[in-house]
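User: Hey, quick favor. My workstation is busy. Could you predict this chain's structure for me?
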Amino acid sequence: MMAIQMFKSVMVPNYFCCYQACDNKPNPADLPKESSSLFVKGPGVKAGTVVAAVPWSKRCADDEDTDYTDAGDDDPTGLQWPRLLSLAGDHPLLAALRLHGRHVPSMQQELFRIAVGCGDDLRCPSDRDLDILRRLATQHETALGPRAVACNDWFLHEKDLATLCEYGAAPVGDLIQWFRIIELDGCDLVKGFAAFLEVDLMRNFAPDLMCADPLGMHTAKRDAGWRSAVRTRPHLLKEDNVWLYHALDALDAPVAALLIFAFTPPRPRIAGVPCIPQPEQGFMRSEFDCTIHHFEPIMNEGAFSPTGFRITQMGVSRPPAGMSECDKLSMTAQCIKDGTGDISKFVFKLRHYIENSCHLEARMKASPRTELYERIGKHVDDLWPCVVAA
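Assistant: No problem, here it is.
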């Protein structure tokens, strides 16, 4: 306890502030667009053809991106994290934001301040602390998404231009940090968002996902618990995991995206679920995984509303003890924990599912998250009103 009190005495600037949307919206004919190729070393980015769809509120933001800095020495918390984590443990969501956003010193300082305030055990932050962490991530343009990927170094980095997919991984201590970017021009943003929230339906495009069952459906409007069984190839790794999902509409915020935060609770505890089921015989249960799904609207040049979206998945995983570094990287790159298996087949199946699935459309109308989907759909229409050029 004395050690934690010592960390609380460290002066860390408070950079967290409320994002204010601009009320003075321009004429629809002046819809702002920024070329994604300026920032993204991404898969299949068609310079001059596909651009990132920028919400109205970003029209009033400063043109200069003040998040990114290449000076790692500007973050005074860098040397303090190891000691804090050794004393208080770690949490998958905190680790994901800390690693993927380490190029943003202002966010790192705020993360450290929040972590110190969580008390003696970071493994079980309160619901309020988790919500603060998620909201913090929305306040920085480059903390998540393709630009965050471009700011990190990757030990393994692959691009498949045929499927417009890019993925990579890197070991960081006892963790594996990984990402995957997929561009789905022509696909509906809200349906793509729903495809990853209705986890049990993901079997239609994730071949390694054996099954998924909801836990505590009455709580799913905010935090949805899921139990999923995955058998990955070629490593034949079998996992029976419990995940906690949280969806967030941050299209108005600086991050300008729809977000899904999913993590395996280090000590399974889900509101409304009195008893967490034990893993099936022969299956392992991960206690430290987190995946952040970042859905960024994109539009064709000359379009006035999104014509597709780009999904960036950013995760951290703690592999089983005793696994070699080579096996860790190979497993992470080939067998991402959502059961997607073969990358090329996955991208094709995902696109086909979003474009053609009547089951997904029916579920979106009869789901605990139906109100969320309807609200986001209306929000997208408000941000990008349909305008026909003269």
